[in-house]
Specification:
Layout (H helix, E strand, L loop, with lengths): L4 E10 L2 E4 L2 E7 L5 E4 L17 E6 L2 E4 L6 H4 L6 E4 L2 E6 L7 H16 L16
Antiparallel strand pairs: 1-2, 1-3, 1-5, 3-4, 5-8, 6-7
């Protein structure tokens, strides 16, 4: 589905209207086979403060690119081609959104996201390297 990690667009209906944010999300499978998407919303982003008013939608995009008609051989012979867009996949995932504001949950997600991105580096940065907030 998401292949572990993907920037995606969580979209949440709220009493104040629809709210969307671009976030990196982890696709996590639990022991019982259920899947969860985990991400971190910055404290300054109101998305996490707004009470969901129904099922949310996450749109995960794959690689994409513009395709010019000049790349088609038929452009030379028939000129009956038009521009298009090439994309590999887009997944629409629906479900309940749950926001956690407790320090332990937030730290766990931030550590998972950081470890996923930094894990392959020769000198990976760690959450433990961040300045401590009081």
């Amino acid at each position: 589905m998401l292949g572990g990690l993907r920037a995606a667009d969580p979209i949440t209906p709220t009493a104040d209207g629809v709210y969307a944010t671009v976030l990196p999300l982890l696709d996590v499978r639990s022991d019982n086979g259920h899947r969860r998407l985990l991400g971190h919303v910055a404290r300054r982003n109101d998305h996490w403060r707004l009470e969901p008013a129904g099922e949310s939608l996450v749109i995960a995009h794959g690689p994409d690119a513009y395709i010019t008609p000049s790349w088609y051989a038929t452009q030379e012979t028939t000129a009956r081609v038009v521009p298009t867009w090439n994309y590999i996949t887009a997944a629409h995932i629906r479900g309940e959104v749950v926001f956690h504001d407790d320090p332990e949950s937030v730290e766990g997600v931030v550590r998972s996201l950081t470890d996923r991105h930094e894990g392959g580096r020769s000198a990976p940065w760690s959450v433990d390297d961040a300045p401590r907030l009081h």
